[in-house]
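Field log, afternoon session.

UNIT: design team B
ACTIVITY: writing a sequence onto a fixed backbone
BACKBONE:
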């Protein structure tokens, strides 16, 4: 009868009754919430607040067949279960995101590794083939194809006109290509050989 009177006063809009209603059941609801969510879970307080928000909206419909706390606890536990399900969805989503990221990162590492291997193979092949060139040819290939200098910079470094740079580079590359196609050093070098045969 005491609970019915308290509910009647709450429904009548008494602030004192609302405070008493809140304080009477809050400690047990908080324990139940922490039990389901985990002892130090910061969401436990939020769940209790949400429980009271729902309870105050439906309090006028409550039929006194069981103690009020049993009804409040049911609301609280449903909210706890909903929170745990939401967390699992977030966790699964994050695990999926992590898997996609790790897969992409692994592919990048493999791709980068393959690119490094090919680059090293091309450089090794180039070093081998440069041995058959004249000193001028070796120098110009080094400046253009290894160091990546522009024609003007190569001309300035060697003290020759840009047209001379282009013609010497063309002759050096032709000799390298001929060495590759003749099956001399670097034969069977795979992608690296194909790169320089272009």
């Amino acid at each position: 009868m005491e609970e019915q009177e308290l509910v009647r006063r709450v429904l009548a809009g008494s602030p004192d009754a609302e405070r008493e209603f809140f304080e009477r059941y809050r400690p047990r609801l908080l324990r139940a919430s922490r039990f389901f969510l985990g002892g130090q879970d910061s969401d436990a307080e939020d769940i209790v607040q949400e429980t009271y928000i729902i309870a105050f909206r439906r309090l006028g419909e409550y039929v006194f067949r069981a103690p009020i706390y049993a009804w409040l606890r049911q609301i609280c536990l449903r909210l706890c279960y909903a929170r745990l399900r939401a967390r699992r969805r977030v966790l699964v989503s994050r695990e999926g995101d992590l898997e996609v990221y790790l897969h992409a990162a692994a592919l990048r590492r493999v791709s980068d590794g393959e690119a490094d291997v090919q680059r090293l193979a091309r450089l090794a092949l180039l070093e081998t083939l440069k041995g058959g060139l004249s000193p001028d040819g070796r120098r110009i290939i080094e400046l253009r194809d290894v160091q990546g200098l522009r024609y003007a910079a190569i001309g300035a470094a060697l003290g020759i006109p840009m047209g001379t740079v282009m013609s010497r580079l063309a002759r050096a590359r032709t000799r390298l290509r001929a060495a590759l196609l003749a099956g001399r050093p670097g034969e069977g070098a795979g992608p690296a050989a194909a790169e320089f045969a272009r």
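LOG NOTE: The two ends are 96 Å apart (CA to CA).
NEXT ACTIVITY: expression trials, pending approval
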